[in-house]
Amino acid sequence: MPDAKKALPYSPGIDSAGIVEEIGPDVTKVKKGDRVYGTFTGPHSEIQGPYAEFAIYNEHAVFPLPDNVSYKEGAVLGIPYFTAYVGLFIGCRAKPGETFLMHGGSGAIGLAAIQWARSRGMTVIATAGTEEGRTLAKSVGAHHVLNHRDENHIQQIMDLTDGLGVDVILEMAPSINLAIDIELVAHKGRIGVIGTPGPVEIRPERMYCKESSINGIGTIAITKEVVKEVSSALHAGLELGYLKPVVGMEFPLEQAQEAVLSRSTKRTGALGQYILSINQS
Predict the structure, then answer these.
(1) Alpha helix positions (H), the chain
(2) Nearest partner of 63 among 276, 219, 218, 236, judged by Cα
(3) Any idea of the CA torsion for 118, 119, 120, 126, to the nearest 10 degrees?
(4) What Rg do the C-alpha atoms of the chain give, in angstroms?
(5) CA gap 187, 167 in Å, rounded
């Protein structure tokens, strides 16, 4: 990710969408007036972030925004959809016909992962801690949505897979769930760890008995080839309508601090990705 220590003046943020206002002298990929979204695309990304009226991106970090996608929707594309794709199809090598479990299916990455998995013919099981979150996960394509606050939800997952377990799991809270994931994963199953740090105690013998694996997932070192693959697949999915970005809470730019605080203090379950909007009047 971009370095947290930046020389001032500096504007934070990563993902955004809007109209190209100006381009550098050597830029050929986009032109002034194009509808685009921008995101982090690897260790050489230089982003002057979108917590401002204007954002600055390298040419390789900007992509065309299909006409059927709004700027608000475009602003929630980058990190969630890139991370979910990398986690599913590159890190965990997910395939059509497999079963996929998404913990926290109502968050930004979870919603993106559900849609990617459905688009590739996977059976999708998602969990969420609120009724609103479960409804949202169901609406974007999850076949089965469970309450992860229900003490029986682990057994429910096993029942849904006829006791075989799930082929792929994306894990956003490994310090809470990883030991359980190892029990839930099927023979030769793959677990992709995306989430927050923290100590974890697991039973390795449960992994080698199943020949399962744990994969670290991220876009910090994403290559140009992977960026091209993900952005191409994302553009097609948006144009054809099987990928539908979900905008969470919306804050005016002037309330950027409140937006960040609301994310860090919210305890009622994630519902998509919040955005900052700019008053154009």
Answers:
(1) 71-74, 78-85, 108-119, 131-139, 153-160, 174-184, 204-210, 224-240, 256-265
(2) 236
(3) -20
(4) 19
(5) 8
Distance CA 248, CA 73 (A): 10
pLDDT along the chain (281 residues), means of 10: 63 91 94 96 80 90 96 95 97 98 94 98 96 96 95 96 97 91 96 85 88 92 94 98 93 85 62 81 44
Q: What pLDDT was estimated at residue 263? A: 66
Determine how β-strand 144-147 pairs with β-strand 99-102: unpaired
Q: Which pLDDT score, from 0 to 100, does residue 1 have? A: 45
Contacts (Cβ under 8 Å, ≥6 apart) of 212: 182, 185, 186, 187, 188, 189, 190, 191, 206
Sign of the Cα pseudo-torsion (237, 195, 76, 40, in order): negative
Report whether 74 contacts 17 (CB < 8 A): yes
Residues contacting 153, CB < 8 A, separation 6+: 127, 146, 147
3-class DSSP assignment, residue 137: helix
Is the pTM for the entire model greater than 0.70? Answer: yes
Q: What is the identity of the amino acid at 271? A: L
Tell me: the pLDDT tens digits for 194-209?
977 788 888 888 888 8
Instruction: Return the SS3 of 98.
Output: coil
Q: How are beta strands 62-64 and 35-38 bridged, if at all? A: antiparallel
Which token pair is 52?
């401002």
- The pLDDT of residue 281: 44
